[in-house]
Fold this sequence. Notes:
Elements: E1 2-15, E2 18-31, E3 35-39, H1 46-53, E4 61-66, E5 69-70, H2 76-83, E6 86-90, H3 101-111, H4 116-129, H5 145-158, E7 163-167, H6 175-191, E8 195-200, H7 203-209, E9 212-217, E10 220-226, H8 227-232, H9 237-261, H10 269-280, E11 288-291, E12 294-300, E13 303-308, E14 316-319
Parallel strand pairs: 3-8, 3-9, 6-7, 7-8
Antiparallel strand pairs: 1-2, 1-4, 4-5, 9-10, 11-12, 12-13, 13-14
Bound molecules: adenosine-5'-diphosphate.
Amino acid sequence: MAVIELEQVNKTYSGKNGAVQALKEVSLSVEEGEIFGVIGLSGAGKSTLVRCINLLERPESGHIRVEGKELSSLSGKELRLERQNIAMIFQKFNLLMQRNVLDNVCFPLEIAGVRKKEARKQALEYLRTVGLEDKAKAYPVQLSGGQQQRVAIARALASHPRIILCDEATSALDPQTTRTILELLRKVNREYHISIVIITHEMRVITEICDRVAVLHHGRVAEAGPVQEVFKNPKSKAARQLLLLKETEELEEELTDNDEEDSEESSYSDENEHIDELENKTTPYSVSETGKNSRVVSEDKGHTAILTAEKRKNLHVVRGGAHAVG
Ligand code: ADP
């Protein structure tokens, strides 16, 4: 049974520079118990899509059904109740910084009117699930990014959702931490039978835990299906482009591993600063092949980082355009 169904959804923003159609005739369905990925480059419409699923954004046309209910036909109160079944996890964790970990996880239980003692008992149970029971009294600022995301997952569980929407939930994390968070999401999916929708620009996220995927490109679903099928035999240009992105991610991961092994300071700090700057952008990479042994990993305001298969000494930042190296 489909827990989420989108049928011919259109969403247009009107801004100072005219109208932007962020979603064009988007149709997809998420089956109960599956982990469904939505991948696309920056501006593809991913965030808009995820916000339409719980009607934080209202599309101008199309149908959105969650567990068979047409969301747009619900009253304000019914919609609020329905939203309680849908938890969200964000890239920036969105924890309450003035509250300790336990109180963060208690928060949705308090809102639901659960008595304090019972709320604390349940919250501790969820903290155990995410492996953070020893951090109950810590404040978010005292935790690493990965630990903060674990708290966010425990808090999501405390609202007893049937669906979790993850909006770039691992984009702020390094590859190793990403892996542990994905393992945790898989565990949550299996143990609590929660359907999960993952919005991401990272191929590793899709290939590591998603059952099915939709490739979003300029607001349209370019193709969708089981992950293995889509990326083994991609039919769309958008999916082929993402396969190149995967290669880049793998190289990047290799570099991170090498850096961990070899902590020697690089004499190419200027270039590295640009690379870090580019990597820290929320804007995902735009990928294209530029020549043998080379990939453009990111383009941003005229800076282009080119990554060769060799280590950092071969990283080059080129201003004003792509130049193949290697
Ligand atoms: P993604 O999450 O894939 O990066 P978004 O859903 O954020 O894509 O954006 C899709 C398109 O809609 C982009 O062109 C973006 O600039 C535009 N957009 C997103 N939100 C707004 C908004 N609130 N007002 C105007 N345009 C927007």
